[in-house]
Amino acid sequence: MGIAGKKYIELFCINEHCSLMQTQKEGIRKIILQVARKEFIEKGFKDASMRNIAKDAKVGLSNIYNYFRNKDEIFREILSGLLSAMDKVMEEHNSPKYISVDIFSSEEYMRSQIDMFVKLIDNYKEDFKLLLFKSSGSSLGNYREEFIELQTQVGKEYIALMKEKFPTINGGVSDFFIHTMSSWWMSIIGELVMHDLSHRELEDFIREYMEFGTAGWKKLMQVKD
């Protein structure tokens, strides 16, 4: 076998070794996250112990920092799916398809919103509990207040966009009312995740909430049939 052939085999073996090492690292990282989730759920962020996480994951305490810089980074990684889902909800809220008076009477719109929120609660129930009730001491400790502020701004922009497109509607809804409705919605999410509702009960509640809210906003914004 020529020199070129030997070098190819050596390179192949090195690449295979690197691939195996990467797979092992990803496996350890996944175990750390699984163990940390259990620790956070049981104790909350503030009282969760990196020492316990390392012990239960069978990783040396110093070695765990080769995977995560600190406890906060682990916490945020665990909640990354929920955080992205919530960001997406806000990003889509004022999309052109929703700047329409048809949303006040469209069963298709109602169904899509019910499905979206039911899926959100179903998929991230434990994550919501961590985020809303057990994140004190983390960089997400003020998430509720920050999200309410964001939702308030998005709500104000939504009404302005509706007023621009439909000049006859009432665009003078007070900022404090929008803020209060945003706060109420976060409280509702908290109630939903803390109660053991069946899928059907959750769906029925979301429909009730949507129908109640839609009728109220329609009246408040003076949208004509």
TrEMBL record:
DNA-binding positions are 49-68
Keyword Lipoprotein assigned to the entry: answer is no
- Which UniProt key words apply to this protein? DNA-binding
What this protein is called in its record is TetR family transcriptional regulator
Q: Does the keyword rRNA-binding apply?
A: no
| Sequence ranges assigned to domain HTH tetR-type in this UniProt record | 26-86
Which organism's genome codes for this protein?
Maribellus comscasis
| Single annotated GO MF | DNA binding
Pfam families found in the cross-reference section: TetR_N
Q: What is the lineage of its organism?
A: Bacteria, Pseudomonadati, Bacteroidota, Bacteroidia, Marinilabiliales
The cross-references to InterPro entries, in alphabetical order and at most eight, read:
Homeodomain-like_sf, HTH-type_Tx_Regulator, HTH_TetR
Write down the superkingdom of origin.
Bacteria
SUPFAM superfamilies linked:
Homeodomain-like
Q: PANTHER family given for it? A: ACREF/ENVCD OPERON REPRESSOR-RELATED (PTHR43479), ACREF_ENVCD OPERON REPRESSOR-RELATED (PTHR43479:SF11)
